[in-house]
Amino acid sequence: QVQLVESGGGSVQAGGSLRLSCAASGYTYSGYSMGWFRQAPGKEREGVAGIDGNGAISYADSVKDRFTISRDNAKKTFSLQMNSLKSEDTAMYYCAISTLTQRPDRDWWQLLSPYEYNHWGQGTQVTVSS
User: From the CB of residue 71, how many other CB atoms can be counted at a distance below 10 Å?
Assistant: First the structure.
């Protein structure tokens, strides 16, 4: 079955950088959409960045120009480079993959909606201190 394992979380001061990685396994099709989500205590899970099978990317407005999502289909990994981190970025971060469809192209809102994904990693904590 599909498995996702995140790595790279940690604690950093405001203005710093972190890189999250997600290693995926258990599937063969390379065109599934992949995304990063986060959830702070008492808040709903929100989409941070998503990338579809054609390489189209969506970002939440709050992270545009600071975060970068990328994927390596050959290695079945995808990453989230986070720069200029702010205290409000503190949350548990989850990677996700959608095997609900083999359509490689997805609308921007689908890439950021947790309801469009059916496989999730265990989460990695990111804490940004001001």
Answer: 21
Q: By three-state DSSP, how is residue 61 classified? A: helix
Tens digits of per-residue pLDDT, 19-32? Answer: 999 999 999 898 99
Contact between 20 and 9 (Cβ < 8 Å): yes
Question: How many CB atoms neighbour CB 26 within 10 A?
Answer: 12
Residue 103 pLDDT > 90: no
If one counts every other C-beta atom within 10 angstroms of the C-beta of residue 6, the result is 21
Going by the DSSP 8-state scheme, the letter that residue 66 receives in this structure is T
Which residues fall within 8 angstroms of residue 110, CB to CB, at 6 or more apart? 33, 50, 116
Closest by CA position to 48, among listed 22, 67, 30, 29? 67
